[in-house]
Design a protein that fits this description.
This protein is mainly alpha-helical and 105 residues long. The protein has helices at residues 2-25, 44-83; strands at residues 29-33, 39-43. The chain has 2 helices and 2 strands; from the N terminus they run αββα.
């Protein structure tokens, strides 16, 4: 597990350095024009990162309804499991031809 942690750290450092170099190479000013004659000028990398962050937020917002639906379904199934009457112990099923018996303890 230690090797995976080191490898993960190395990958994150490489990605960070690549993004840092990208930011340094793209520091040219750009103008973003909004409606009604509004404009904003800033570095290109800031505009790109803002667009990425905005897209990530919209993506997360699109996932929220499905997430809430799954949470409700899980809560309902847990409630159903708690309310299920305790039945007789499960009968042992006969072994299928391909099944291997567990080793004795």
């Amino acid at each position: 597990m230690a090797i995976l942690r080191v490898l993960s750290t190395v990958v994150w450092v490489v990605v960070f350095l690549l993004l840092l170099l990208l930011a340094l190479k793209n520091a040219d000013p750009v103008t973003v024009n909004f409606y009604f004659g509004q404009a904003w000028q800033g570095p290109l990398i800031l505009v790109v990162l803002a667009a990425f962050a905005l897209g990530a937020l919209f993506g997360l917002a699109a996932c929220v309804p499905a997430f809430i639906r799954c949470r409700r379904e899980i809560a309902g199934l847990r409630k159903e499991l708690r309310l299920r009457p305790a039945g007789p112990a499960e009968r042992e099923q006969p072994a299928l031809p391909g099944d291997v018996a567990p080793p004795p303890m």
